[in-house]
TrEMBL record:
<dbReference type="InterPro" id="IPR001131">
    <property type="entry name" value="Peptidase_M24B_aminopep-P_CS"/>
</dbReference>
<dbReference type="InterPro" id="IPR036005">
    <property type="entry name" value="Creatinase/aminopeptidase-like"/>
</dbReference>
<keyword id="KW-0479">Metal-binding</keyword>
<dbReference type="InterPro" id="IPR000994">
    <property type="entry name" value="Pept_M24"/>
</dbReference>
<dbReference type="GO" id="GO:0046872">
    <property type="term" value="F:metal ion binding"/>
</dbReference>
<dbReference type="GO" id="GO:0005829">
    <property type="term" value="C:cytosol"/>
</dbReference>
<comment type="similarity">
    <text>Belongs to the peptidase M24B family.</text>
</comment>
<protein>
    <submittedName>
        <fullName>Xaa-Pro dipeptidase</fullName>
    </submittedName>
</protein>
<dbReference type="InterPro" id="IPR029149">
    <property type="entry name" value="Creatin/AminoP/Spt16_N"/>
</dbReference>
<dbReference type="Pfam" id="PF21216">
    <property type="entry name" value="PepQ_N"/>
</dbReference>
<keyword id="KW-0645">Protease</keyword>
<feature type="domain" description="Xaa-Pro dipeptidase N-terminal">
    <location>
        <begin position="6"/>
        <end position="151"/>
    </location>
</feature>
<keyword id="KW-0464">Manganese</keyword>
<dbReference type="GO" id="GO:0008237">
    <property type="term" value="F:metallopeptidase activity"/>
</dbReference>
<keyword id="KW-0482">Metalloprotease</keyword>
<dbReference type="Pfam" id="PF00557">
    <property type="entry name" value="Peptidase_M24"/>
</dbReference>
<feature type="domain" description="Peptidase M24">
    <location>
        <begin position="163"/>
        <end position="422"/>
    </location>
</feature>
């Protein structure tokens, strides 16, 4: 279906859901800001602007200070902030594919925007322009309706799935360029630029701060620096792009020809594990079960390669895989890279508890058709996590010499984006980035 049709269907779904949310939480209208920029303390500089995600869920319009007014049974009103300005560029609206979905009005100033919004009765407000919203008599960011809407955000419409897949297409181009630069001897900074050039965007337009880690830095999970040294043995590249406000989140680990072949064999083993975990994705499956499966697969790999002397069930039960793999298997993905509702048990805001033995999971939901999740198992050599095991009752289970020899290679993470379907999972990444 053409994009316009996909979007209009998405908007109709959203409006029907907003009506349910309003009636369940006792409101008659919903007002959502695209947001105001964050200004650094004691400064006149703003942080890069990031649209309020609830606004993005209804409307792809970018930029601050726009406002949506949603009322059951009425076409959504979009008040577009459109000042005349010679300091900053204000792009004309043009004829975007989504415009037909809205009753669109333009306002040349903030006062004019909020005049158009008016003072709707029994209205909930979502956003950070709280002084304006309070003055309009709106109830500010009520937790009840926010939770209800967050729950709805975890079920992606075909339009949203299209956007996320397009974001993986672009990120795949960036990953291919980043890997090529690495294999030609580039530095982390140069690889970062190669990724952005292929994606064709500015840094703040990426889905998140890129992780470009050579050698031991691969063991810092969210390493965001970019060093200028060249000639690494390994590259862990965790980068995503955006499409119409939706994110992708992809990781590849690449050994250079100079890499220790024992580490390269671990990368190959992780790739095999990763594809098996992806193939195990099913609807109606507690995410904690998949996470547990990923620990069992890792335990098998560590045993096979002589790093750990324990059978997989025993290794996981004793927590011996945890220092090698301290994060969750994945998270929901959508407008936010770590998308909302990964821990919700229902639209009322109740929380799904983590499974026993895995207390810090970002995702504790049961998979449902329409969820988009990342699958990102890891294997790292993190000195601070391994250190206690060098002295405790399990120390003889580890091959410390091998661990020390492989540690300068950092770590391995491989990450794809998966749609949960009625019958299994659809990998949104592999077809665009096969390895
Ligand atoms: N890019 C951060 C993550 O994979 O969660
Ligand atoms: Mn991720
Ligand atoms: Mn990632």
């Amino acid at each position: 279906m053409p994009l316009k049709g996909l979007f209009l269907d998405h908007l109709a779904t959203r409006m029907a859901y907003a009506e349910k949310a309003l009636s369940a939480t006792g409101f008659d209208a919903l007002v959502i800001s695209s947001g105001q920029p964050f200004t650094y303390f004691a400064d006149d500089q703003d942080a890069p602007f990031n649209t309020v995600p609830h606004f993005r869920h209804y409307c792809p319009l970018t930029g601050p200070h726009h406002v949506l007014v949603l009322k059951p049974g009425a076409k959504p009103m979009l008040v577009r902030y459109a000042p005349e300005d010679f300091w900053y560029e204000q792009l004309p609206l043009g004829s975007p594919f989504w415009a037909e979905g809205f009753d669109l009005v333009e306002a040349p100033s903030l006062d004019a925007v909020w005049e158009k919004v008016g003072q709707p009765k029994r209205a909930a407000y979502i956003g950070n322009e709280t002084d304006r919203a309070a003055a309009a008599g709106l109830e500010l960011n009520p937790a009840s309706i926010t939770a209800f809407l967050d729950w709805g955000r975890s079920y992606k419409t075909p339009y949203e799935i299209h956007c996320i897949e397009e974001a993986t297409v672009t990120a795949a181009l960036g990953h291919a360029a980043g890997r090529k630069a690495f294999l030609a001897g580039a530095s982390e900074l140069e690889i970062h630029y190669a990724f952005m050039e292929a994606v064709g965007c500015l840094e703040f337009e990426l889905a998140f701060a890129s992780i470009v880690a050579q050698n031991e830095k691969g063991a810092t999970l969210h390493y965001e620096n970019k060093r200028s040294f060249r000639g690494g043995n390994t590259l862990l590249l965790d980068c995503g792009a955006r499409h119409l406000g939706y994110a992708s989140d992809i990781t590849r680990t690449t050994p250079a020809p100079s890499c220790d072949p024992r580490f390269k064999a671990l990368v190959d083993g992780m790739e095999k594990n990763m594809l098996e975990i992806c193939a195990a994705v099913r609807p109606h499956m507690p995410f904690g079960e998949l996470h547990h499966f990923s620990h069992l697969k890792l335990a098998g790999l560590l045993k096979e390669h002589g790093l750990l002397d324990a059978d997989p069930e025993e290794a996981v039960a004793l927590g011996l895989t945890r220092p090698f793999y301290p994060h969750g298997l994945g998270h929901h993905l959508g407008i936010q890279v770590h998308d909302v509702a990964g821990k919700l048990a229902g639209p009322d805001g109740s929380i799904a508890p983590p499974p026993a033995g895995h207390p810090t999971l970002r995702t504790t939901r049961t998979t449902e058709p329409g969820h988009v999740i990342t699958i990102e198992p890891g294997l790292y050599f993190i000195p601070m996590l391994l250190r206690p095991f060098r002295e405790n009752e399990h120390k003889a289970r580890f091959d410390w010499k091998l661990i020390d020899e492989l540690s300068p290679n950092g770590g391995i993470r491989i990450e794809d984006d998966m749609l949960v379907t009625e019958t299994g999972g659809r990998n949104l990444t592999r077809k665009h980035l096969p390895n």
